[in-house]
Design goal:
By secondary structure, the protein is of the alpha+beta class. The strands form 8 sheets. Strands 12, 13, 17, 18, 19, 20, 21, 22, 23 and 24 form a 10-stranded mixed sheet that branches. The chain has a 5-stranded mixed sheet with strand order 5-9-8-7-6, with helices on one face.
Length: 638
């Protein structure tokens, strides 16, 4: 197959002619993909809302002129299973998107692509794609720093899955003067191409927000104001005396009201005494004092509150799954306002959510607004918050009851923890595992000590670090002791599976040790389970580590299952394992209380107790079922 593809590429192929009907059919069929392509290639300067409309406009103008016209396209550009119609509209979209990125020059005619789109238009609303996680945000920032051809090269590689030869031909056809330079520029982005398919870059799945309401009010002309007044008077006259309108006592949509104004007034922010946590009935985020050097910067606090209520087009908004991004219902609590690296950061709490506002200190655009759900937090969950990430490091704001902070590598349980300086609750920077690139050779965790003991948490790309625990689900405790650290060490890298998932805690439970059938030692079975702040979306991973190996291997995964958790503290999993002799075995293990295991399908066998080992063929697939001591059936984690 590979040699045939090479031969086909080398053979001369006549360039097909595309009629308008064929191009229209391809555009309709692949419209979402073409709009995504345009959105990713367009320049980032005008804001996401204008970029969305421009992407739709460029795509809709990609058809050939005239009903009978036909267009010739380069043979290398065919795509979507060889459809020349798709290849033509893709080239047109790419060409116009690159033209839109060209700088404006004096005494030069502007192309249609450099002008604001006439259609489609949306009045009174702002449209922008759904917010992604930390990885999507980082990729978007890297793409914004590239030139138009560089972005196009990266997107054609990742979204269209084109080899470099086809990318070079397509860029040349689109009018790029130096395709090789564009490809070299795209090589500088290490992010995985799979992120290009996320909701962050989907201009067909959009969020809606109002435009700047105050500016709209100020620019309404007198005639429209008079007409509105007449309409209101007529409606009041038509109402029965003393009666309500159709919406009852609710204020008109987007009208000013005292509660909304109070939520945006910096003077009404809730500020907690630095010693309130010592006598409070609750020990969570509600007793954190306001810290930082800018807690009295009224202008900064007003900007943070205003952006929370109505984020502009240039604001990057992100939220953990299941977290609402609307404005606060009343005045929120101020937790922090100060300088963090190269940004001014404000952290607020409304009783349900943590909101972090960050703006660059150099005055450039690029403010960010992040949300995390924290309802039901307890002392163990409210030990720290992420202040900011920069240069591969992360800084935390710790709870007022934290006495000591340290950095610990989960993959080196025998090594000691390295103390971190604390200044007004802010830690010194430590390496963030979610910002690391390349192979997983270490996994940093934040170790916090207070009067009730020591806890571990780790950065998973969100505002609230995930708490790490260890032990049987019904008796799990903080992963701070020597045994817990040794349990976590081989499986720390599996935490990467839970990035940006709204994770509250991750527990590691060593549920079985199994002698290997070739006599080379023992294998360890561990189940790691991530619980989320929203309740749903929990994930259980069954992992297996053989003697002498540094890392465990994920052998089964369950999403939204009760297995391996407090409601069902049982688990059953299996793996196809190759012995040093070259023989293959099916190994299976259940947690304590498993009376028997049986397997069907590609391997048929059974065993009493919680362990099973039987010879198998390479690639064999089997279904696991077990029975607990009380007769309850249990299924294998898949």
């Amino acid at each position: 197959m590979q040699s045939q593809d090479v031969a086909n590429r080398q053979a001369p192929v006549p360039a097909p002619a595309v009629g308008v009907e064929q191009a229209e059919a391809a555009l309709v069929e692949h419209y979402p993909r073409l709009v995504r392509l345009a959105y990713l290639v367009l320049p980032h300067g005008p804001g996401r809302g204008r970029r969305v409309l421009a992407a739709h406009a460029l795509t809709q103008r990609a058809l050939p002129r005239g009903r009978r016209s036909s267009s010739v396209i380069p043979a290398q550009s065919t795509g979507r299973d060889g459809d020349p119609g798709y290849a033509f509209v893709r080239l047109q979209v790419l060409r116009t998107a690159l033209e839109a990125a060209l700088p404006l020059r004096r005494r030069a005619w502007l192309t249609r692509s450099q002008l604001p789109p006439l259609l489609p238009q949306v009045w009174g609303l702002r449209l922008f794609p759904h917010s992604g996680g930390a990885e999507e945000l980082a990729l978007d920032q890297r793409l914004a720093a590239l030139s138009g051809p560089g972005r196009a090269a990266y997107v054609l590689r990742g979204l269209e899955k084109l080899p470099d030869a086809d990318v070079r031909a397509l860029l040349t056809a689109a009018g790029v003067a130096d395709p090789d330079a564009a490809l070299k520029e795209a090589d500088g982005i290490p992010a995985p191409y799979t992120l290009l398919g996320s909701a962050e870059f989907d201009p067909c799945s959009l969020q809606v927000r109002p435009t700047d309401l105050m500016r709209r009010r100020q620019h309404t002309n007198a005639a429209l104001a008079a007409a509105a007044a007449l309409a209101v008077c007529g409606a009041l006259i038509a109402l029965p005396r003393g009666g309500w309108g159709a919406d009852g006592p609710a204020a008109p949509v987007y009208a000013r009201n005292p509660a909304a104004e109070a939520a945006l007034d910096p003077a009404r922010l809730v500020r907690i005494s630095p010693t309130a946590w010592r006598t409070a009935a609750r020990t969570d985020f509600s007793v954190w004092p306001a810290r930082g050097g800018l807690t009295r910067d009224t202008a900064l606090l007003r900007r943070a509150l205003s952006v929370w209520a109505r984020p502009g087009e240039t604001v990057k908004v992100s939220a953990t799954p299941g977290t609402q991004t609307g404005g606060p219902a009343g005045p929120p609590q101020l937790l922090y306002a100060g300088l963090v690296d190269n940004a001014r950061v404000v952290i607020l709490y409304d009783g349900l959510r943590i909101a972090r506002y960050a703006e660059p200190t150099d005055g450039t655009q690029g403010a960010a607004l992040d949300f995390a759900r924290v309802d039901g937090a307890r002392k163990a969950d409210a030990g720290a918050l992420v202040l900011g990430r920069a240069d591969g490091n992360v800084r935390f704001l710790t709870a007022p009851w934290v006495q000591k902070a340290a950095e610990r590598d989960l993959m080196k349980p025998g090594a000691g923890a390295m103390d971190l300086d604390l200044a007004d609750g802010v830690t010194a920077p430590l390496g963030s595992p979610v910002l690391r690139t390349g192979a997983c050779t270490s996994w940093n965790a934040l170790q916090l000590t207070d009067d009730s003991g020591t806890r571990l948490a780790t950065d998973l790309g969100e505002l609230v670090p995930a708490r790490l625990t260890s032990g049987r689900p019904t008796k799990a405790g903080d992963a701070s002791g020597a045994q817990a650290l040794h349990t976590w060490a081989p499986f720390a890298c599996s935490l990467a599976q839970e990035r940006s998932a709204g994770v509250r805690t991750v527990n590691a439970w060593s549920f079985a040790d199994q002698p290997l059938p070739d006599g080379s030692g023992e294998g360890t079975w561990v189940c790691t389970r991530a619980e989320t702040w929203r309740g749903g979306g929990s994930a259980a991973l069954a992992q297996f580590q053989t003697a002498g190996s540094r890392h465990g291997v994920i052998v089964a995964k369950g999403k939204d299952v009760t297995a391996c958790g407090p409601r069902d503290p049982h688990v059953l999993a299996g793996v196809l394992w190759k012995a040093g002799t070259g023989n293959w075995y099916l190994l299976a293990a259940g947690s304590r209380g498993t009376a028997s295991i049986r397997t069907t399908g590609g391997v048929t066998a059974s065993a009493q107790g919680n362990l099973l080992a039987v010879k198998a063929e390479q690639g064999a697939r089997a279904d696991l079922k077990g029975t607990l001591d009380d007769g309850t059936p249990v299924n294998g984690l898949r």
